[in-house]
Amino acid sequence: MLVSYEILEDLYKDAGEGRKGRAINYQKQGRVKIKNIEYENELNFSLSANVIGNEIYKTYISVKDGLVEDITCTCEDYYNHYGVCKHTLASVLEFVNNPQYSGEIVENNEKNKNNSLLNIKTGNEKFNSFKQIVNSFYQEEVEGISDEEDEIKQKGTIKIEPIIYYEKFSGDIKVEFKIGNRKMYKIKNLAEFYTRMLNKESYKYGQKLEFIHTREVFTEESKPLLDFILKYSEIIKFANSNSNSNFRYYGKALNETNILLSNTGIDDLFEVLKGKEVEFNKDYTNQKIEFTEEEPKLDFILKKTSTGNFVIYPEKEIYEITILKGKIYKYILLDKKIYRCSKEFEKTSLKLLELFRKNYVTEIEFGEKELTEFFSVVAPKVKNAIKMEGISEEEIKKYKPQELIVKTYFDFDKNDYLVVDVKFCYGEKELNPLNEKEKIDEPRNIIEETKALNIFRKTGFMFDVKNLRFILPDNDKIYEFLTEDINFYMQKFEVMVTENFKKKQIRNTKMTGIGVRVENDLLSIDLSKIDIDPSELEDIMEKYSLKKKYYRLKDGSFINLEDNKEIEFLDKLSSGMGVNYKEIENGELRLPVNRTLYLNQLLKALKGTEIIKNQEYREIVNGLNKEQLEEEIKVPENLNNILRYYQKTGYRWLKTLDKYKFGGILADDMGLRKNNTNVISNSRLC
Known about the structure:
There is one protein chain. By secondary structure, this protein is α+β, with helices and mostly antiparallel strands. It has six domains: 5-149, no CATH class; 159-282, no CATH class; 293-399, no CATH class; 405-503, no CATH class; 507-623, no CATH class; 626-680, no CATH class. Strand 1 (32-41) and strand 2 (44-52) form a beta hairpin. It is flat, with a radius of gyration of 48 Å. It starts with a helix and ends in a 6-residue tail after the last helix.
């Protein structure tokens, strides 16, 4: 016997009855192909084999001095318990029971009598399991090195090719994929492919394709398609794994051989394949189609009939054109191309085509009276896709509307509401579109007229039934119109305004000059040169405090309150100095002279305003300069060596306050030695 009975019994015991039974069946069915044998005797040998199961599993068994030193397999069962699996046991049974190997060993021993396996001493039997663990991890490292070498060799060589199937009656689109380099193999299970990529597994698709599943092995051109497959394969895998219990008797929730495209999936696939030709199966016929962003050539014929009526019909047979709907875009399958339709094309030519299809007609007939309406409403939308047969330009000229000119006349009524009279002009003829009694003989462009009227409605204008014009009574909307909308109107229409309209525009406040002087120990501020009606000042400032954008004056014009430096100055003057706006209305303010510094800071922010200051005011401002304080005010000699620097500064400041009669407070923490009368003598405290 090639293997000792004791070794076989140990293998049976480790495998268990279940694995033993399946191993015997594998061996009997011829699923084991032994690749290599090194044999000395029944107690010393090693062998490796390939066992065919769901895939090809590689096994290895090594026996030294009657003890199993190493046993491995690439199957999941082995990695779960690091013991004898059905594949390794089947390999040993094939070696024992196939007489071919017995004859070969006898013949080989006769030829090589002096050759034998190395006699490596093994330890006690109780360490067998430990040795298997060590050998397993060692083998994994060796295979890992080999895998890295294979990956480097295969880097950027694996291609992916899609095959698209279109089911005409259901409208379903599904995609299958082939993978390979020289020879292409179908990906039979997308969920398993996702798992291989996730785990970076090595897998053999066929005799000429085996590789480690990493992103690097795929060609650059195939990587976008790889990402598409992984995105949707993940959905398939987890949908099926989470629904196994519910679908136990009905199969899997999602097909794992292909991706059934949703509306989003169509958009995603087009983005990946645009500019490429791929295999496409429609009506059980394979062809190559190109994904393109070009506009499809979809023309319509306008023709006069023998009865004097007109017909319009698509140049191509409507049922030869396949329309596919994505979530964002629509697509047309035509002439071995899939076109992605722009939004403009979708709203014009494609919309007209779909009307034919929805009504199951191949042509639409209408009379001569409707021709004007056709050229007014339909033709402007699809003008580049209309071909005329049997009709001259001169013949239909009378049905085509001339260019629409919109004239607008803006004014303010007695209530200071914004009003506008509108005229639609075709050549020299014009009409008020709000007056149903006014008619013209010329063909009218209904589409452009509707667009124009919608502009007025969106702005907020309402229909003044009595005067047959538009009216805008809301101050907020009037202000918005004058600041923003009027520019758009001037681009779209001919805009004319009255003198009354011009007077009631938005204006900025102006403060041409401010006079400041000091007299009788008071500040006198001249505010008479502000171009605001004093009687409205309080209301203006109230709106400003509420952060309103504007204030509408009594004359109907507007003051812009945003970024208004003059209004901001008046607000700070009032809040910072406790001034009532009634005082400002008089045009002159009188304030304590100790407000000089604060006033000076406010005046600095007024750009473009002339500030007139008298000499005494200038002297105060300049006298409060820190450098001048040190030069003009000297600390007494008897204190100069006693006081610290900051105490000297405090002394000078108090003397300055006294000089200009500002008054001051000597606080406890100023460090100026209040008890020292020499320091604070001649200083006034208030």
